[in-house]
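Closing statement on the flavin-adenine dinucleotide sub-project.
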Amino acid sequence: MKRREFIQRSAFAAAALAAQPAFAIAKKPKVIVIGAGFSGLAAAYELHQKSYDYVVLESRNRIGGRVFSHMLDERENLVVELGAEWVGESHTRIRQLCEEMRLPLDNNQMDTHLIYANRYHRNGEWGYSEQWKTKFDQLKKGYSSLSVAEKNKLDQMDWWRFLNENGCDGFDLRIHELNDTTDFGETIRQISALAALSEYALSSVKNEMDFKIRGGNSMLAKKIAERIAMEKIILNCTVTKIVQDHSGVAVFCSNGQQFKADKLICTMPTFAMSRVEWSPLLPEEKRDAMHALQYARINKNPILFSTRFWKDENFDLLTDMPAHYFYHATKNQRSQKGALTSYTVGDKADVVGNQSDHERWSLVQLSLQAGFDSLAPLFEKQVNYNWGEDIFSKGAYAVYRPGQWTSLQKVLRKHFMHTHFAGEHLADWQGFMEGAINTGEEAAHALM
Ligand SMILES: Cc1cc2nc3c(=O)[nH]c(=O)nc-3n(C[C@H](O)[C@H](O)[C@H](O)COP(=O)(O)OP(=O)(O)OC[C@H]3O[C@@H](n4cnc5c(N)ncnc54)[C@H](O)[C@@H]3O)c2cc1C
């Protein structure tokens, strides 16, 4: 069973589908879409294809939102991702769109090395114990036969506790902590066991770390914008106030621009949503849910080196050191040079994100020391993006803590008056580009 099917059969599926128009409108409604991330662009593309009148308002000076490709070396044409990195094998809609837009997907699977307790272990030389592997396989297989009540109960527990209760201990548990914390972006002591087990049980073998769009993931945003026409997207337009009444919706921006429409699709992350003045106020249960939802702190620090000293094109490396996780960020991009991204999460992301470039580079060298020495002569340059400080999301993607997966999401998904909500945080493929696209398209369909 795919993750989508699971959600649709689960306890809160009914609420997810409740986003129906409040009343029938004879003519096609005029629509405002807030946000030109993947959910806003996907919504706009649907509206465009069905000949709706719409406009997209985007606060940043660029499209793509949390998909943010960066040209690290222009001469060598080396592009790295400051936001979303991997397209998953199971992510059918984004793969379809890439095909439609003639964007090739390159294999981006990695073979993981480890630095642990100051020792370097190459890929294949380390792993979970046989005993735990067998047990974990059983747990993943058993997931599909859990009842709704059992899933709801599982949601009350954190992933660390669940692993522990099921006999995962010692090195196995430490590796899960390092690995799964990288995936969720915060400590697994704060992650719903339901969210984690469903991800493990329903994801591809490489946990949806399978492909990347050639030329950078932002290429998809660019292609969609070209299809719908860039004039439909107004950049540098920060929405500050939303007024809804019987006649429709009025949107006010900090640059003085105002827009009126029949319907609104809001794709802002919850932090940005809470900074907008809503009139009338959003329902109390939605405001409470917005305040309860946290986003993962992730810091991305791609570093350009004169040679690919890690040798293996599929190189990634988990560490128990401050710089946490590294991966080859320029796989499939031809050059002598190459980039490794240092990827830190949770408290480590706060520490690394707050340092100067000089200090960050020291931490990287320290973290790699057990495997790779004397890197200074190979260093060329670095960039850094700390998503915990991003002014719109204050994090990389939503983190559903114990008890929240089955309670908050259904509230956040509910439409309010003329407004339909979309975005990664509302998706069954939550935390992924796929989820953002799915919810954007669903919001567009809901008002058609
Ligand atoms: C570090 C990191 C790693 C990730 N890794 C992966 C990965 O490997 N694979 C994967 O599939 N996904 C990954 N993701 C998640 C993926 O990037 C998101 O799920 C997806 O891009 C979210 O899209 P969205 O449209 O929901 O939100 P956004 O992209 O945030 O779009 C919302 C838009 O609304 C705009 N906005 C906000 N407030 C206002 C306002 N007041 N007025 C006007 N505009 C406003 C914002 O500027 C933004 O452009 C990662 C994300 C990050 C940050």
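Residues 34-40, 57-60, 65-67, 83-86, 238-239, 267-269, 272, 276, 298, 300, 387, 392-393, 396-397, 423-424, 431-436 surround flavin-adenine dinucleotide (CB under 6 Å). With this model delivered, the sub-project is considered complete and its resources will be redirected to Aim 3.
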